[in-house]
Sequence to fold (375 residues):
Amino acid sequence: MSEKNQHDFVIPPGLLPVDGRFGCGPSKVRPEQIDALVARATSVMGTSHRQAPVKNIVGSVREGLVDLFGLPEGWEIILGNGGSTVFWDVATFGLIRERSQHLVFGEFGGKFAEASAAAPHLADPVVVSSEPGTHPELIADPTCDTYAFPHNETSTGVMMTPRRPVGDGLVLVDATSAAGGLAWRPSEADVYYFAPQKCFASDGGLWFAACSPAAIERIRTVKATKRWMPASLDLSIALDNSVANQTYNTPALATLIMFDDQLRWMNENGGLPFAAGRSAESARILYSWAESRPFATPFVRDVAQRSNVVGTIDIEGTDANEICRILRSNGVVDTDSYRKLGRNQLRIGMFPAIEPSDVAQLTRCIDAVVEHLGA
Fold:
Protein backbone atom coordinates (compact mmCIF):
# COMPACT_ATOMS: atom_id res chain seq x y z
CA MET A 1 0.00 0.00 0.00
CA SER A 2 1.42 3.41 -0.95
CA GLU A 3 2.27 6.01 1.68
CA LYS A 4 -0.25 8.36 0.08
CA ASN A 5 -3.06 5.84 0.44
CA GLN A 6 -2.12 5.22 4.04
CA HIS A 7 -2.40 8.90 4.93
CA ASP A 8 -5.59 9.32 2.89
CA PHE A 9 -7.46 6.77 5.00
CA VAL A 10 -10.89 8.03 6.01
CA ILE A 11 -12.16 6.74 9.35
CA PRO A 12 -15.85 5.75 9.11
CA PRO A 13 -17.92 8.62 10.60
CA GLY A 14 -19.70 6.28 13.00
CA LEU A 15 -16.38 5.60 14.76
CA LEU A 16 -15.36 9.22 15.26
CA PRO A 17 -15.71 10.93 18.65
CA VAL A 18 -18.04 13.89 18.98
CA ASP A 19 -15.01 15.98 19.97
CA GLY A 20 -11.60 14.88 18.74
CA ARG A 21 -9.38 16.76 21.19
CA PHE A 22 -7.34 14.45 23.44
CA GLY A 23 -4.33 16.62 24.22
CA CYS A 24 -2.50 16.40 27.53
CA GLY A 25 -2.31 20.16 27.84
CA PRO A 26 -3.68 22.45 26.74
CA SER A 27 -6.78 20.31 26.95
CA LYS A 28 -10.18 20.32 25.35
CA VAL A 29 -12.18 23.43 26.26
CA ARG A 30 -15.92 23.01 26.77
CA PRO A 31 -18.09 25.23 24.50
CA GLU A 32 -19.76 26.65 27.59
CA GLN A 33 -16.43 28.12 28.68
CA ILE A 34 -16.17 30.01 25.41
CA ASP A 35 -19.75 31.20 25.89
CA ALA A 36 -18.77 32.49 29.34
CA LEU A 37 -15.88 34.37 27.78
CA VAL A 38 -18.13 35.96 25.16
CA ALA A 39 -20.70 36.90 27.82
CA ARG A 40 -18.03 38.88 29.68
CA ALA A 41 -16.41 40.36 26.59
CA THR A 42 -17.42 43.94 27.40
CA SER A 43 -18.03 43.82 31.15
CA VAL A 44 -14.66 42.29 32.11
CA MET A 45 -12.28 42.03 29.16
CA GLY A 46 -10.31 45.23 28.74
CA THR A 47 -11.12 46.52 32.23
CA SER A 48 -8.93 47.22 35.25
CA HIS A 49 -7.82 44.22 37.27
CA ARG A 50 -7.98 46.38 40.40
CA GLN A 51 -11.72 46.94 40.10
CA ALA A 52 -14.67 44.85 41.28
CA PRO A 53 -15.58 43.01 38.02
CA VAL A 54 -12.17 41.32 37.80
CA LYS A 55 -11.65 40.99 41.55
CA ASN A 56 -15.02 39.25 41.81
CA ILE A 57 -13.87 36.64 39.28
CA VAL A 58 -10.61 36.11 41.15
CA GLY A 59 -12.61 35.71 44.36
CA SER A 60 -15.00 33.28 42.68
CA VAL A 61 -12.10 31.15 41.44
CA ARG A 62 -10.49 31.12 44.87
CA GLU A 63 -13.76 30.17 46.58
CA GLY A 64 -14.47 27.55 43.92
CA LEU A 65 -11.12 25.88 44.54
CA VAL A 66 -11.66 25.85 48.31
CA ASP A 67 -14.98 24.10 47.74
CA LEU A 68 -13.64 21.68 45.12
CA PHE A 69 -10.69 20.57 47.24
CA GLY A 70 -12.53 20.69 50.56
CA LEU A 71 -9.80 22.83 52.09
CA PRO A 72 -9.78 23.23 55.89
CA GLU A 73 -9.93 26.55 57.68
CA GLY A 74 -6.71 28.52 57.38
CA TRP A 75 -5.78 27.41 53.86
CA GLU A 76 -5.40 30.05 51.18
CA ILE A 77 -5.50 29.97 47.39
CA ILE A 78 -2.60 32.03 46.06
CA LEU A 79 -2.15 32.93 42.40
CA GLY A 80 0.29 34.73 40.16
CA ASN A 81 1.35 35.19 36.57
CA GLY A 82 3.19 32.40 34.79
CA GLY A 83 2.55 28.67 34.86
CA SER A 84 3.97 25.81 36.90
CA THR A 85 7.41 26.38 35.37
CA VAL A 86 7.44 29.82 36.96
CA PHE A 87 6.21 28.39 40.24
CA TRP A 88 9.32 26.21 40.50
CA ASP A 89 11.36 29.43 40.60
CA VAL A 90 8.84 30.95 43.02
CA ALA A 91 9.32 27.96 45.33
CA THR A 92 13.13 28.11 45.24
CA PHE A 93 12.90 31.70 46.49
CA GLY A 94 9.95 31.56 48.86
CA LEU A 95 9.31 28.01 50.13
CA ILE A 96 12.53 25.99 50.33
CA ARG A 97 14.39 27.14 53.39
CA GLU A 98 17.72 25.36 52.88
CA ARG A 99 17.39 21.97 51.21
CA SER A 100 14.73 20.02 49.34
CA GLN A 101 14.10 16.42 48.37
CA HIS A 102 12.67 15.76 44.91
CA LEU A 103 11.05 12.62 43.58
CA VAL A 104 11.87 12.41 39.88
CA PHE A 105 9.95 9.99 37.67
CA GLY A 106 9.50 12.03 34.54
CA GLU A 107 10.27 15.29 32.81
CA PHE A 108 8.45 17.71 35.07
CA GLY A 109 9.59 16.45 38.45
CA GLY A 110 13.12 16.58 37.06
CA LYS A 111 12.78 20.20 36.01
CA PHE A 112 11.90 21.31 39.54
CA ALA A 113 14.88 19.39 40.89
CA GLU A 114 17.09 21.17 38.35
CA ALA A 115 15.70 24.55 39.40
CA SER A 116 16.49 23.82 43.05
CA ALA A 117 19.99 22.60 42.19
CA ALA A 118 20.69 25.79 40.23
CA ALA A 119 19.60 28.15 43.03
CA PRO A 120 22.83 29.53 44.55
CA HIS A 121 21.24 30.22 47.94
CA LEU A 122 20.13 26.60 48.47
CA ALA A 123 22.05 23.44 49.33
CA ASP A 124 22.18 20.72 46.69
CA PRO A 125 18.84 18.90 46.68
CA VAL A 126 18.36 15.22 47.43
CA VAL A 127 17.04 13.57 44.27
CA VAL A 128 15.27 10.21 44.45
CA SER A 129 14.46 8.86 41.01
CA SER A 130 12.97 5.80 39.34
CA GLU A 131 12.60 4.52 35.81
CA PRO A 132 9.93 6.12 33.59
CA GLY A 133 6.66 4.27 34.07
CA THR A 134 7.15 3.94 37.83
CA HIS A 135 7.45 6.30 40.77
CA PRO A 136 9.86 6.19 43.74
CA GLU A 137 8.92 6.54 47.39
CA LEU A 138 9.57 9.43 49.75
CA ILE A 139 12.50 8.97 52.10
CA ALA A 140 12.33 10.84 55.40
CA ASP A 141 15.48 12.95 55.60
CA PRO A 142 16.16 15.32 58.54
CA THR A 143 18.47 17.40 56.31
CA CYS A 144 15.55 18.36 54.06
CA ASP A 145 12.99 20.98 55.02
CA THR A 146 10.92 20.53 51.84
CA TYR A 147 9.68 17.51 49.88
CA ALA A 148 8.57 17.93 46.26
CA PHE A 149 6.96 15.55 43.77
CA PRO A 150 4.26 15.47 41.08
CA HIS A 151 0.79 14.14 41.80
CA ASN A 152 0.71 13.12 38.15
CA GLU A 153 3.67 12.94 35.79
CA THR A 154 2.34 14.34 32.52
CA SER A 155 5.22 12.99 30.45
CA THR A 156 4.84 9.32 31.43
CA GLY A 157 1.28 8.82 32.67
CA VAL A 158 2.28 7.84 36.22
CA MET A 159 0.25 9.09 39.17
CA MET A 160 1.42 9.16 42.77
CA THR A 161 -1.06 9.78 45.55
CA PRO A 162 0.25 12.61 47.74
CA ARG A 163 1.29 11.56 51.21
CA ARG A 164 3.34 13.14 53.95
CA PRO A 165 6.67 11.52 54.95
CA VAL A 166 7.43 10.66 58.54
CA GLY A 167 8.95 13.65 60.29
CA ASP A 168 9.00 17.36 59.58
CA GLY A 169 9.11 19.13 56.26
CA LEU A 170 6.87 21.06 53.93
CA VAL A 171 5.23 18.93 51.19
CA LEU A 172 4.98 20.55 47.75
CA VAL A 173 2.87 18.72 45.16
CA ASP A 174 3.02 19.57 41.47
CA ALA A 175 -0.62 19.07 40.50
CA THR A 176 -0.54 20.66 37.05
CA SER A 177 -2.11 17.69 35.25
CA ALA A 178 -3.84 16.30 38.35
CA ALA A 179 -5.73 19.15 40.03
CA GLY A 180 -9.43 18.74 39.36
CA GLY A 181 -9.07 15.22 37.95
CA LEU A 182 -7.51 13.21 40.79
CA ALA A 183 -8.50 12.97 44.44
CA TRP A 184 -6.14 14.12 47.21
CA ARG A 185 -6.27 14.85 50.93
CA PRO A 186 -5.16 18.26 52.22
CA SER A 187 -3.76 16.56 55.31
CA GLU A 188 -1.06 14.97 53.11
CA ALA A 189 0.27 18.18 51.50
CA ASP A 190 1.12 21.79 52.27
CA VAL A 191 1.30 23.32 48.80
CA TYR A 192 -0.78 21.90 45.95
CA TYR A 193 0.14 23.95 42.91
CA PHE A 194 -0.91 23.88 39.26
CA ALA A 195 -1.68 25.78 36.10
CA PRO A 196 -5.27 25.69 34.74
CA GLN A 197 -4.80 24.45 31.17
CA LYS A 198 -5.34 20.75 31.81
CA CYS A 199 -8.15 19.46 34.06
CA PHE A 200 -9.57 22.96 34.31
CA ALA A 201 -9.64 23.33 30.50
CA SER A 202 -8.50 26.93 30.56
CA ASP A 203 -5.52 28.70 29.00
CA GLY A 204 -2.06 28.91 30.50
CA GLY A 205 -0.49 32.04 31.89
CA LEU A 206 -1.28 31.72 35.59
CA TRP A 207 -0.20 29.54 38.50
CA PHE A 208 -2.37 28.66 41.50
CA ALA A 209 -1.31 27.17 44.82
CA ALA A 210 -3.49 25.84 47.62
CA CYS A 211 -1.41 26.61 50.71
CA SER A 212 -1.78 25.23 54.23
CA PRO A 213 -1.21 27.31 57.36
CA ALA A 214 2.25 25.72 57.62
CA ALA A 215 3.04 26.84 54.08
CA ILE A 216 1.85 30.37 54.81
CA GLU A 217 4.07 30.43 57.89
CA ARG A 218 7.01 29.24 55.78
CA ILE A 219 6.36 32.03 53.25
CA ARG A 220 6.48 34.60 56.05
CA THR A 221 9.56 33.17 57.77
CA VAL A 222 11.57 32.88 54.55
CA LYS A 223 10.64 36.47 53.68
CA ALA A 224 11.80 37.57 57.13
CA THR A 225 15.31 36.24 56.42
CA LYS A 226 15.73 39.13 53.94
CA ARG A 227 16.58 36.69 51.17
CA TRP A 228 16.65 38.58 47.89
CA MET A 229 13.90 37.66 45.46
CA PRO A 230 12.37 39.43 42.46
CA ALA A 231 9.01 41.00 43.28
CA SER A 232 7.30 38.98 40.54
CA LEU A 233 8.52 35.76 42.23
CA ASP A 234 7.89 36.88 45.81
CA LEU A 235 5.28 34.60 47.39
CA SER A 236 4.61 37.04 50.23
CA ILE A 237 3.56 39.66 47.66
CA ALA A 238 1.43 37.09 45.82
CA LEU A 239 -0.19 36.08 49.13
CA ASP A 240 -1.03 39.65 50.12
CA ASN A 241 -2.57 40.33 46.72
CA SER A 242 -4.44 37.03 46.56
CA VAL A 243 -6.28 37.51 49.83
CA ALA A 244 -7.45 40.83 48.34
CA ASN A 245 -8.66 38.90 45.24
CA GLN A 246 -6.13 40.43 42.91
CA THR A 247 -2.72 39.74 41.40
CA TYR A 248 0.53 41.68 41.70
CA ASN A 249 0.46 42.52 37.99
CA THR A 250 -2.15 42.25 35.24
CA PRO A 251 -3.53 38.70 34.99
CA ALA A 252 -4.75 36.79 31.94
CA LEU A 253 -8.46 37.59 32.20
CA ALA A 254 -9.62 35.08 29.58
CA THR A 255 -7.86 32.34 31.54
CA LEU A 256 -9.63 33.37 34.74
CA ILE A 257 -13.05 33.52 33.08
CA MET A 258 -12.76 30.06 31.52
CA PHE A 259 -11.34 28.66 34.76
CA ASP A 260 -14.22 30.13 36.75
CA ASP A 261 -16.80 28.53 34.44
CA GLN A 262 -15.08 25.13 34.65
CA LEU A 263 -15.06 25.30 38.44
CA ARG A 264 -18.77 26.12 38.50
CA TRP A 265 -19.47 23.16 36.22
CA MET A 266 -17.49 20.82 38.46
CA ASN A 267 -18.90 22.03 41.76
CA GLU A 268 -22.51 22.21 40.59
CA ASN A 269 -22.33 18.61 39.37
CA GLY A 270 -20.84 17.05 42.49
CA GLY A 271 -17.41 18.54 42.99
CA LEU A 272 -14.19 16.56 42.87
CA PRO A 273 -15.89 13.13 43.05
CA PHE A 274 -17.82 14.06 39.89
CA ALA A 275 -14.82 15.43 38.00
CA ALA A 276 -12.39 12.71 39.09
CA GLY A 277 -15.07 10.11 38.41
CA ARG A 278 -15.27 11.15 34.76
CA SER A 279 -11.51 10.78 34.38
CA ALA A 280 -11.56 7.42 36.16
CA GLU A 281 -14.23 6.14 33.77
CA SER A 282 -12.21 7.28 30.76
CA ALA A 283 -9.15 5.54 32.19
CA ARG A 284 -11.08 2.32 32.73
CA ILE A 285 -12.18 2.38 29.09
CA LEU A 286 -8.71 3.12 27.72
CA TYR A 287 -6.72 0.63 29.80
CA SER A 288 -9.20 -2.21 29.44
CA TRP A 289 -9.13 -1.68 25.66
CA ALA A 290 -5.31 -1.70 25.58
CA GLU A 291 -5.12 -4.86 27.66
CA SER A 292 -7.46 -6.62 25.24
CA ARG A 293 -5.49 -5.79 22.08
CA PRO A 294 -2.39 -7.69 20.84
CA PHE A 295 -0.79 -4.47 19.55
CA ALA A 296 -1.34 -2.26 22.63
CA THR A 297 -0.03 -2.36 26.20
CA PRO A 298 -0.38 0.17 29.03
CA PHE A 299 3.08 1.65 29.52
CA VAL A 300 2.64 1.84 33.30
CA ARG A 301 2.66 -1.76 34.49
CA ASP A 302 1.56 -1.17 38.09
CA VAL A 303 -2.20 -0.66 37.93
CA ALA A 304 -2.13 1.50 41.08
CA GLN A 305 0.32 3.91 39.43
CA ARG A 306 -1.57 4.28 36.14
CA SER A 307 -2.83 7.80 35.70
CA ASN A 308 -6.54 8.49 35.34
CA VAL A 309 -5.87 11.74 33.48
CA VAL A 310 -2.95 10.94 31.16
CA GLY A 311 -2.94 7.51 29.53
CA THR A 312 0.25 6.21 27.89
CA ILE A 313 -0.15 3.20 25.62
CA ASP A 314 2.77 1.36 23.99
CA ILE A 315 2.12 0.21 20.43
CA GLU A 316 3.72 -2.86 18.85
CA GLY A 317 3.95 -3.73 15.18
CA THR A 318 2.71 -0.36 13.92
CA ASP A 319 4.34 3.07 13.89
CA ALA A 320 2.51 5.12 16.52
CA ASN A 321 3.43 8.30 14.63
CA GLU A 322 1.57 6.99 11.59
CA ILE A 323 -1.47 6.29 13.76
CA CYS A 324 -1.34 9.86 15.08
CA ARG A 325 -0.99 11.34 11.59
CA ILE A 326 -4.02 9.49 10.28
CA LEU A 327 -6.06 10.32 13.37
CA ARG A 328 -5.17 13.99 12.96
CA SER A 329 -6.19 13.97 9.29
CA ASN A 330 -9.59 12.76 10.51
CA GLY A 331 -9.93 15.47 13.18
CA VAL A 332 -8.76 13.37 16.14
CA VAL A 333 -5.81 15.33 17.48
CA ASP A 334 -2.96 15.45 20.00
CA THR A 335 -2.54 11.74 20.70
CA ASP A 336 1.26 11.93 20.24
CA SER A 337 3.67 10.54 22.81
CA TYR A 338 5.86 12.81 24.92
CA ARG A 339 8.76 13.63 22.63
CA LYS A 340 11.61 13.08 25.11
CA LEU A 341 10.34 9.70 26.26
CA GLY A 342 11.22 8.27 22.85
CA ARG A 343 8.77 5.37 22.81
CA ASN A 344 6.46 4.01 20.11
CA GLN A 345 3.53 5.22 22.10
CA LEU A 346 0.22 7.07 22.17
CA ARG A 347 -0.54 9.54 24.96
CA ILE A 348 -4.21 10.26 25.62
CA GLY A 349 -5.59 13.11 27.72
CA MET A 350 -8.52 12.00 29.89
CA PHE A 351 -9.29 15.22 31.72
CA PRO A 352 -12.79 15.83 33.13
CA ALA A 353 -13.95 17.92 30.14
CA ILE A 354 -13.34 14.94 27.83
CA GLU A 355 -16.38 12.71 27.48
CA PRO A 356 -15.68 9.08 28.44
CA SER A 357 -17.82 8.09 25.46
CA ASP A 358 -15.37 9.95 23.21
CA VAL A 359 -12.48 7.96 24.70
CA ALA A 360 -14.39 4.80 23.76
CA GLN A 361 -14.81 6.13 20.22
CA LEU A 362 -11.11 6.95 20.07
CA THR A 363 -10.23 3.33 20.80
CA ARG A 364 -12.46 2.26 17.90
CA CYS A 365 -10.69 4.74 15.64
CA ILE A 366 -7.29 3.35 16.65
CA ASP A 367 -8.51 -0.18 15.91
CA ALA A 368 -9.59 0.92 12.44
CA VAL A 369 -6.32 2.72 11.72
CA VAL A 370 -4.16 -0.20 12.91
CA GLU A 371 -6.19 -2.59 10.76
CA HIS A 372 -5.77 -0.26 7.77
CA LEU A 373 -2.02 0.08 8.25
CA GLY A 374 -1.62 -3.67 8.56
CA ALA A 375 -3.69 -4.40 5.47
